[in-house]
Amino acid sequence: MKHATKLYETVSALMAPGKGILAADESDATAGKRLAMVHLPNEPEHRQDFRELLFTAPGIEEYLSGVIMYDSSIKNFTDDGIPFPDVLTAKGILPGIKVDLGTKDLHGFKGEVVTEGLDGLDNRLTEYYELGARFAKWRAVIVIDEDKLPTTESLEMNAVQLARYAQLCQAAGIVPMVEPEVLYAGDHDIARAEMVTTRTLQILFHTLIKYKVDLRGLILKSSMVLAGDMYPEQSSPSEIANATLRTFHMSVPHEVGGIVFLSGGQTPKRATENLNAIAGIGEQPWPITFSYSRALEEPVLLTWQGKPENIPEAQKMLLHAVMMNGLASQGQYDASKDSKLK
Ligand code: 13P
């Protein structure tokens, strides 16, 4: 393949030990939900203020290898006129771009969805590469319940779309992050989450191999294996770690360049503790780290409150959150000494 060496270099930079990825890639609509937490209206200037606060936070480059942006933010600037991707590149952080266009009903399959965004994707990737993007993200949403969902058809349809997206990224010299998010929402137990996540990943990797995607030049973004948020008993970090790693060993080929986690609606502290427990089990065939959105952004938003005078404190909170997750990715996080993450 034309770009293989470049793709492997990007993967290894993204998966650098002790570092992880910030997913600041909310669509404009979802960014509004974040701003609503601090009672700000969903205006472009507030979205820009929040992204500028995040990307210019001093010191984050020690713990962040990459930041994922959205179309409107990769084309945006700081107040001083510096393009956001250039701010990141100057710090040695790789810019990434979410390229899917969200989900639509999978007609005939009640409650299930398929992700859109393949039309014209090759041209968009060329444009994003020129803007500095070196990796991309595509999120498939896998709805789970106690017995019926997801259907095999929805897993197969989403896997084919992810494979085509991954092909187009690799042809453009961009590392695809493939994200089949098995939702945390629900009242299923952890055993059900393990079974569904294993099957999801088995179908995904079978499909990626079938369509000749280069697994060394690809990163998997996965959910942790968790009982649903409505299930009465929440599992311990060690149960979660064991179930998650069993899942990967049953489904993820060893050539895959790396595995990163989404936080999925867990509290920031829980996401960090669970990553720490996973890393604490020891070395795995793949480097593993974090690629959180909510678990990194929520503490920052709550510190910022939309007020300019709070920016330095909010930036320190981001540094703290990425530092704690950097430690967790190496199994060195001590939750009892961390009073800041809740
Ligand atoms: P959360 O960490 O908020 O789950 O978001 C990660 C992500 O990129 C979802 O697509």
Question: Secondary structure elements and their pairing?
Answer:
Blueprint: H1 4-14, E1 20-23, H2 28-36, H3 44-55, E2 64-69, H4 71-74, H5 84-90, E3 94-98, E4 103-105, E5 113-115, H6 121-131, E6 135-142, H7 152-171, E7 175-182, H8 190-210, E8 219-222, H9 237-251, E9 258-261, H10 268-280, E10 288-292, H11 294-304, H12 311-328
Parallel strand pairs: 1-2, 1-10, 2-3, 3-6, 6-7, 7-8, 8-9, 9-10
Antiparallel strand pairs: 4-5
Structure characterization notes:
By secondary structure, this protein is of the alpha/beta class. It has one domain (4-333): TIM Barrel (Alpha-Beta Barrel). Helix content is 44%, strand content 15%. It contains twelve helices and ten strands. The strands form two sheets. An eight-stranded parallel beta barrel has the order 1-2-3-6-7-8-9-10, surrounded by six helices. Strands 4-5 form a two-stranded antiparallel ribbon. Strand 4 and strand 5 (113-115) form a beta hairpin. Helix 7 (152-171) packs across helix 8, helix 10 (268-280) packs parallel to helix 12 (311-328) and helix 11 (294-304) packs antiparallel against helix 12 (311-328). The N and C termini lie far apart (45 Å). The relative contact order is 0.14. The mean pLDDT is 98.
